[in-house]
């Protein structure tokens, strides 16, 4: 009986230990994730800040203002469009390099490639954005080269092109590292077997490696898209106030208008918008790839 009791008590003891180990993480998420989002959701339905304003009442006027003005839908579409452009560009640029890093045989070359990917992340986002401003400004390096070659200067900043370029440079390492881990776990012998059966290297890649790397494409795309639509520093420096996105609009409402309730409503719209788009992208990619387990 004592041995049976010990065997029955072991799983309970393991579950208790696991629960205690997860407690700090649960508290961290509750304090720094769920609590701020909950407070933001509550503030979006109030007429003001209850801490400093008396007679605060519940209201839906902030959301009604968003629904009644087409300007805010235009800002949402601009934010989503920049996120999509950034995600597609990062995927097209990052997949070949990730494939090379996953398939390279030389450890030294793999280390050099990994260092090249990680080194930009050691520099702050503001510094990297200012570097792009020095390159793309009206009198920057790029326009100086164009003028030296006899071409007219181009407007490379304060538009969506400049914002997307800066965001791709910042978030490209996230795409590459995500794809490298997934591609590295794909057995190379599968491609070799396809080629032995008569498939060309390109067809073997399209029929074997690419479908098997869909989970990495999905994870990297979702990560880059979520970061891009919530970015603030790069869009405001590279686009100024010529290109308005939801994070910039939220900042304006807090810093200039002191309208915390409306800023909270815009923040909830950004959160819901990103969640809806992420779920839609998940289902679409799962349907296209035929892997229903991703949905």
> How far apart, in Å, are the first and last alpha carbons?
47 Å
Query: What is the name of the CATH topology?
Result: MetI-like fold
Query: Beta fraction of the residues?
Result: under 5%
Helix content: over 70%
**Mean of residue pLDDT?**
85
Q: Major sheet, described briefly?
A: none
Q: What is the overall number of helices? A: 13
| Envelope shape | globular
Structural class call reads mainly alpha
Task: Kindly provide the name of the CATH class.
Answer: Mainly Alpha
In the CATH hierarchy, the architecture is Orthogonal Bundle
Roughly how many Å is the radius of gyration?
A: 25 Å
Which consecutive residue ranges, at least 5 long each, have pLDDT under 50? 291-295
Q: How many domains is the backbone divided into?
A: 1
Number of strands: 0
Element string (H = helix, E = strand): HHHHHHHHHHHHH
CATH superfamily: MetI-like
Report on this structure:
By secondary structure, this protein is an all-alpha fold. It has one domain: MetI-like (MetI-like fold, Orthogonal Bundle), CATH 1.10.3720.10. The chain has 13 helices and no strands. The protein has helices spanning 2-43, 61-68, 70-103, 107-118, 125-136, 141-148, 160-184, 188-196, 201-212, 214-229, 233-239, 246-255, 260-289. Helix 3 packs parallel to helix 7, helix 3 (70-103) packs across helix 10 and helix 8 runs antiparallel to helix 9.
């Amino acid at each position: 009986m004592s041995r049976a009791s010990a065997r029955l008590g072991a799983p309970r003891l393991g579950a208790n230990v696991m629960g205690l180990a997860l407690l700090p993480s649960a508290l961290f998420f509750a304090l720094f994730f769920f609590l701020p989002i909950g407070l933001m959701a509550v503030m979006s339905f109030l007429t003001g800040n209850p801490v400093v304003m008396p007679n605060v009442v519940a209201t839906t006027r902030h959301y009604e203002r968003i629904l009644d003005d087409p300007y805010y839908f235009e800002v949402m579409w601009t934010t989503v469009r920049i996120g999509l452009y950034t995600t597609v560009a990062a995927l097209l640029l990052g997949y070949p390099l990730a494939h090379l890093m996953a398939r390279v045989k030389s450890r030294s070359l793999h280390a050099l490639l990994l260092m090249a990917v990680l080194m930009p992340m050691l520099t702050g986002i503001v510094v990297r954005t200012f570097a792009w401003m020095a390159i793309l400004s009206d009198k920057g390096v790029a326009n100086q080269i164009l003028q030296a070659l006899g071409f007219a200067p181009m407007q490379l900043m304060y538009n969506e092109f400049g914002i997307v370029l800066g965001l791709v440079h910042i978030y490209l390492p996230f795409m590459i590292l995500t794809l490298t881990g997934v591609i590295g776990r794909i057995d190379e012998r599968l491609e070799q077997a396809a080629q032995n059966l008569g498939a060309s290297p390109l067809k073997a890649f399209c029929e074997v490696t690419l479908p098997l790397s869909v989970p990495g494409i999905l994870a990297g795309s979702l990560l880059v898209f979520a970061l891009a639509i919530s970015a603030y520093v790069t869009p405001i420096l590279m686009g100024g106030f010529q290109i308005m996105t939801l994070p910039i609009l939220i900042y304006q409402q807090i810093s200039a208008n002191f309208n915390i309730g409306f800023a909270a409503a815009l923040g909830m719209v950004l959160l819901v918008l990103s969640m809806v788009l992420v779920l839609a992208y998940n289902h679409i990619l799962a349907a296209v790839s035929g892997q229903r387990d991703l949905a």
